[in-house]
């Protein structure tokens, strides 16, 4: 057996069913072995598409996503996606070919120091020097990627190692003396947390992506205690978006209720989130009344990194919530809820109606038409925030977006990965005209594998989010954000790939458009031409605090208050 | 505040790269780094000198602990022994200087390890402050080269950097 066959066998033993990838010289022996393997391969048109698809596969399924690429340029095309998966703590294993060992370090054809390059953006990485190490390395890589705080792991294998004769064993023991994540919360700290919550008058529960797998426990805990729940962008779906205890998303484009709740809270129970600056705003003004912050995270380094923590609980969200649940009691929060209810009803998410078609209403229309029963992926920009605001998902692993890195172009490949992971689900990619054009070549992947993905492009003719910042903070100097003069006709572009194209330009055609997308049998690319000067609100300017939240564009404020 | 930190690592290729990369990426201030093997095959020990406030130091420790190949991290805040080795090549123009340098050498209990016509190489071990003073004392004579290893440290008494079964929580 060759190294490449051993590699595939090791992957099979990890339960890998699908690999996203793109071949090339240095990984050819493995592609050759793949020809005879049970593992399904999805050929993408760009390695970036492959890593994003693997990331979404992982996020949608809860399993490890796998991507494969050749040396040098192939591997380097994974860099953005690895960083994206790293920031959003996603379990991915990337396998890259490298030049033969004898050529490493000689600036050989298609050589790049990929383990060096990816060191800061992977949880761990390997350069495999010995063919018999392959099973051990694969075992470790999957273990590291999927346990503790999940993250991407890269395995770089020189071509001659793939070709070498394998004489080793597959029964390898995990031996990682420096890697022993703590999963069970400390009982003393759990007791302290329960104590603080019991005495709290204005407690809140803040939930991030690290609790996606703990949705059952989360729901039970919230319902038992009656605590209001806030979910970050990465936490969307971990708690049902249609639940009366849910206040929405916090932070820069969060709801008034969520941000005010944080501002006035006396006890905060934060689970599986890392207090990103898009959530906290100016840290010194974050949650000024919270005398107790309880932070539950599997990564000890996250606790106390950004905000001062009074009760640190290192552990897995699910296990810690189970422990918390044992001692949880119904809390008397009637007065607190009266305040929250007031904010919630007074400041719901809304938009200013205009004669033009608007992104918010397109997204809302899809939400209504589907009953919210879809997996949503997004690009990055205004449309992403609108999707988060107006497509509240009610199930875990069903809002897949780039949170930490904010990577434009993830929408379509994320949708591909999600659809491969959960083929029975309706998958909608809400994309921007800018974001979509960063990876649109993956339309070919949709065609090749007949993946029924609905791409909804909210075309405002601009790099909208940048335009919004220029509008608000750069005196309307719209430097290099105009796209409409050179955008393709997206529907015709889709048709060139043999995909159904839909185009909606007028408000009155909205429902017809939604219907055309949802009733189509197979993939669709739909372009909705939306109001080009829309802004995302509410908004807390970067570095601001909850009190600095603006509800409307300053120029339109008067009308709103009237 | 200056801290001396000991790190026990698996001596895999690139592990040093991971550590220095971590410091660079997170903006931690690394003053010196000294590495050597231990009596256990496969394990190396690194001494780091780092400066920063309590919050930074806490992050340094936690981020180091996140590295898969790091087995143990200790901040030597308790009584510990600290040593640095320095080699100093100093210019000696004539007999007078030679005698003066010899006085300094004796005062610091340094050793002469190389004698040439116009220069000497002196070897000194001591804590970093002592090495600093030694270099200052020699400076007037014309220092030609200095090589310092960076501090290494070990806790006094019973405390050891042995591997624990479980990683510490916070
Ligand atoms: C790869 C990448 N490049 C640049 C940016 C900076 N950026 C953030 S949002 C945005 C505009 C996005 O435009 P579009 O996709 O059309 O969405 P819209 O905001 O108009 O909804 C840009 C350029 C980014 N997030 N990612």
TrEMBL record, chain B:
Q: One MF term from GO for this chain?
A: acetolactate synthase activity
Reaction it catalyzes: 2 pyruvate + H(+) = (2S)-2-acetolactate + CO2
Cite the entry's keywords alphabetically.
Answer: Amino-acid biosynthesis, Branched-chain amino acid biosynthesis, Transferase
Q: Does the keyword Phosphoprotein apply?
A: no
What pathway is this protein said to act in by its record? Amino-acid biosynthesis; L-isoleucine biosynthesis; L-isoleucine from 2-oxobutanoate: step 1/4; Amino-acid biosynthesis; L-valine biosynthesis; L-valine from pyruvate: step 1/4
Domain ACT: where? 4-78
**PROSITE patterns listed in its UniProt record:** ACT
Supply the InterPro entries for this chain: Acetalactate_synth_ssu (IPR004789), Acetolactate_synth/TF_NikR_C (IPR027271), Acetolactate_synth_ssu_C (IPR019455), ACT-like_dom_sf (IPR045865), ACT_dom (IPR002912), AHAS_ACT (IPR039557), AHAS_small-like_ACT (IPR054480)
**UniProt EC number:** 2.2.1.6
NCBIfam families given in the database record: acolac_sm, PRK11895.1
Q: What does this protein do?
A: Catalyzes the conversion of 2 pyruvate molecules into acetolactate in the first common step of the biosynthetic pathway of the branched-amino acids such as leucine, isoleucine, and valine.
Quaternary structure? Answer: Dimer of large and small chains.
The UniProt entry's sequence similarity note says:
Belongs to the acetolactate synthase small subunit family.
- Protein known as: Acetolactate synthase small subunit
Q: Which organism is it from?
A: Thermus tengchongensis
């Amino acid at each position: 057996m060759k190294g490449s066959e051993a590699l595939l066998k090791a992957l099979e033993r990890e339960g890998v069913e699908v690999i996203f990838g793109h071949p090339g010289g240095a990984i050819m022996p493995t592609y050759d072995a793949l020809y005879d393997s049970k593992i399904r391969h999805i050929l993408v048109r760009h390695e970036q598409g492959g890593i994003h698809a693997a990331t979404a596969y992982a996020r949608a399924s809860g399993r490890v996503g796998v991507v494969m690429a050749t040396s040098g340029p192939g591997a380097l095309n994974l860099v953005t996606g690895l960083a994206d998966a790293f920031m959003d703590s996603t379990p991915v294993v990337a396998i890259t070919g490298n030049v033969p060992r004898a050529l490493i370090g000689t600036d050989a054809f298609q050589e790049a120091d990929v383990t060096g390059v990816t060191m800061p953006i992977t949880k761990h990485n390997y350069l495999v020097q010995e063919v018999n190490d392959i099973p051990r390395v694969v075992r470790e890589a999957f273990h590291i990627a999927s346990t503790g705080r999940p993250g991407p792991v890269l395995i770089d294998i020189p071509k001659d190692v793939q070709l070498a004769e394998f004489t080793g064993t597959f029964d390898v023991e995990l031996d990682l003396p420096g890697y022993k994540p703590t999963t069970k919360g400390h009982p003393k700290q759990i007791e302290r947390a329960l104590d603080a919550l019991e005495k709290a008058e204005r407690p809140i529960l803040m939930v991030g992506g690290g609790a996606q797998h703990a949705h059952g426990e989360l729901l039970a805990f919230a319902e038992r205690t009656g605590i209001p729940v806030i979910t970050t962008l990465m936490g969307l779906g971990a708690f049902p978006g249609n639940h009366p205890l849910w206040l929405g998303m916090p932070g820069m484009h969060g709801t008034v209720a969520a941000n005010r709740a944080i501002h006035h809270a006396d006890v905060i129970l934060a689970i599986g989130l890392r207090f990103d600056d898009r959530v906290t705003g100016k840290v010194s003004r974050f949650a000024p009344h919270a005398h107790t912050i309880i932070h539950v995270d599997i990564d000890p380094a996250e606790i106390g990194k950004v905000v001062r923590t009074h009760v640190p609980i290192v552990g897995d969200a699910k296990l810690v919530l189970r422990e918390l649940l044992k001692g949880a009691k119904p809390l008397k929060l009637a007065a607190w809820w009266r305040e929250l209810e007031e904010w919630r009803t007074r400041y719901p998410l809304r938009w200013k109606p205009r004669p033009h078609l608007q992104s918010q209403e397109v997204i809302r229309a899809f939400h209504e038409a589907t009953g919210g029963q879809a997996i949503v992926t997004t690009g990055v920009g205004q449309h992403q925030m609108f999707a988060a605001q107006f497509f509240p998902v009610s199930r875990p692993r069903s809002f897949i977006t780039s949170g930490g890195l904010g990577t434009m172009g993830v929408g379509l490949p994320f949708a591909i990965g999600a659809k491969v992971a959960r083929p029975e689900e309706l998958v909608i990619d809400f994309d921007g005209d800018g974001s979509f054009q960063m990876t649109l070549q993956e339309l070919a992947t949709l065609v090749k594998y007949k993946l029924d993905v609905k791409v909804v492009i909210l075309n405002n003719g601009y790099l909208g989010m940048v335009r919004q910042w220029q509008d608000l903070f750069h005196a309307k100097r719209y430097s290099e954000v105009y796209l409409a003069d050179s955008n393709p006709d997206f529907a015709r572009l889709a048709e060139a790939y043999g995909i159904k194209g839909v185009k909606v330009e007028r408000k009155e055609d909205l429902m017809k458009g939604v219907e055309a997308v949802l009733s189509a049998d197979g993939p669709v690319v739909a372009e909705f031409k939306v109001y080009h000067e829309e802004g995302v609100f509410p908004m807390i300017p970067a570095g601001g605090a909850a009190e600095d939240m603006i509800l409307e564009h300053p120029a339109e404020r008067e009308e709103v208050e009237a | 505040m200056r801290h001396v930190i000991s790190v026990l690592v698996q001596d895999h290729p690139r592990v040093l790269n991971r550590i220095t990369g971590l410091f660079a990426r997170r903006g931690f201030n690394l003053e010196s780094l000294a590495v050597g093997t231990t009596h256990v095959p496969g394990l190396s020990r690194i001494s780091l000198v780092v400066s920063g406030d309590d919050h930074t130091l806490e992050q340094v420790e936690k981020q180091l602990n996140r590295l898969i190949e790091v087995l143990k991290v200790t901040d030597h805040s308790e009584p510990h022994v600290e040593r640095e080795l320095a080699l100093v090549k100093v210019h000696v123009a004539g007999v007078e200087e030679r005698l003066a340098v010899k006085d300094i050498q004796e005062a610091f209990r340094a050793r002469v390890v190389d004698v040439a016509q116009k220069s000497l190489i002196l070897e000194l071990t001591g804590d970093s402050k002592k090495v600093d003073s030694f270099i200052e004392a020699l400076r007037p004579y014309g220092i030609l080269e200095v090589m310092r290893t960076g501090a290494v440290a070990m806790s006094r008494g019973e405390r050891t950097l042995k591997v624990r079964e479980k990683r510490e929580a916070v």
